[in-house]
Prior knowledge:
The chain is mainly α and 432 residues long.
Amino acid sequence: xxxxxxxxxxxxxxxxxxxxxxxxxxxxxxxxxxxxxxxxxxxxxxxxxxxxxxxxxxxxxxxxxxxxxxxxxxxxxxxxxxxxxxxxxxxxxxxxxxxxxxxxxxxxxxxxxxxxxxxxxxxxxxxxxxxxxxxxxxxxxxxxxxxxxxxxxxxxxxxxxxxxxxxxxxxxxxxxxxxxxxxxxxxxxxxxxxxxxxxxxxxxxxxxxxxxxxxxxxxxxxxxxxxxxxxxxxxxxxxxxxxxxxxxxxxxxxxxxxxxxxxxxxxxxxxxxxxxxxxxxxxxxxxxxxxxxxxxxxxxxxxxxxxxxxxxxxxxxxxxxxxxxxxxxxxxxxxxxxxxxxxxxxxxxxxxxxxxxxxxxxxxxxxxxxxxxxxxxxxxxxxxxxxxxxxxxxxxxxxxxxxxxxxxxxxxxxxxxxxxxxxxxxxxxxxx
Length: 432
């Protein structure tokens, strides 16, 4: 019997016939979420520079404090609503926030405090929203399915990250910043609809006999359960350390990017274009890797390669920057690191949660993805500012960044070994 074109495409990407609909919905969920976020990201970056490069650590600290304030609310929601409905509550709350920001920018477009609040809010939103979307996937798909399918669905994020900045460039003139924010709210709710499609697919294809019943039950626990789960588990603490290294490396490069862009492009419009161009190149490379490389590497060589390769390349990039601190070198290092994070590190990091209990997939994971990440952002931001103030030149900070990246690589290898020991073969009969 001749196969349809869709069947041939699915086979080319190692997707089963019964998985194709869920994979398409996962791709669309990430595309819509990231398109909405990346429409607003270049504006946020310009606002950060407008407040002064020397003050970025204050915005990072404000973001961390806002994340700490948001965590009990998320923990309360995760403990009291049905597991399959957590994403809808979170996205509905964020969509209402976007409506408020859209109205605020419409009434007071030049208010600096609204701009600063929006910078902090968007920095909290992107981590929580993305973390919850990944929680749905690690909850719905088995560990073996994740190795084959996560990178393919994550390509939707890269495509959204490519379309979003371009849409922002073309639409900011006709509809303004307020219009972009309101459009992002619509895309966020459309992403939630795709998550509903994935949940429905799993209910029709349960991994265990009592899975559907369990997914209808709240996870229970207190608002701070995510933190306590991480502190009780060496494995989850290892993931927290991985996130800490990742965030620290990202912050060192982010501060260096802001310094070099401000020096090379004093005009704000040019700065926004530069950030948009970097985003475009990063997402293009990410899409190609996610579609054609990541899944094959994970399936044949294991998660370890995904978790170690980018940190080692990043360490080399820091050493290059230490001896050649120019914007051109920084742009290459930033593009390679960010594309590698989207294409390799993020799918590999999410696969680590495929072997933990359901509560950890939402609560502990979200704690690591938000509080640990933004805490590392805040601390490493002050460390970077302190090193720059003492050394008066960037080489020392870049050498410290190289050391952090090497620690990141070592930690990634250890986590891959722990995941391999905990992983169970498919099909599994363990209850979720």
